[in-house]
Amino acid sequence: GLLYDNGRIIFRSRHKELVEMVRRELDSGHTIAKHPKKNSYWIEFRNSILYSKLEESGLGKPKAERIFPEIPEEYMRHFVRGFIDASANAESVDGVFVGIDISFAQNRAFLESFNAALVKYADTGDKIVQTTRFPYYEANKLAYKRQDSLKIRDFIYRDLDLILEEGLYLPSLRDILCS
User: Fold this and answer.
1) CA distance linking residue 69 with residue 28, whole number of Å
2) H or E element, residue 20
3) Are 77 and 158 in contact (CB under 8 A)?
4) Tens digit of each residue's pLDDT (9 = 90 or more) over 91-113
5) How far apart are CA 11 and CA 82, in angstroms?
6) For residues 92 and 179, is the Cβ–Cβ distance under 8 A?
């Protein structure tokens, strides 16, 4: 999501399901729009309390300026799951899950901190952020092979009954991660 002036918030994702989830959790009646040229959906609304909380945590800044937020341990797997739902591509070969790539353009430091959280909480191996430079931006990616990806999967779905009950996950990604 992106923050703008005066408490206006825009939450954007390539996954319509994630935008619908945000709208449902915020009990919002706002319309979900589709970008006419890009494969993304968004919802725009005003909420001064949420705006302040997001701004406080550093998540309201442009992606290139965001820092990894301080999150209490009991909420870390939910944050990680949400970030993976929004930013990861899971790969399967012949119906078998083989790995996760997590991309976050223009913010290597955020991905390095994200990786450190996965090392600490999911017991993955330490990874190096891969950077590809283009004329106008740089793309950063973390790549996890099957063994570490399974650890990530087990970490983010540890409270599976609650997650399923509340619908706080991206079903299409979970289907691949659990194949």
Assistant:
1) 25
2) helix 16-25
3) yes
4) 888 888 889 999 887 789 999 99
5) 13
6) yes
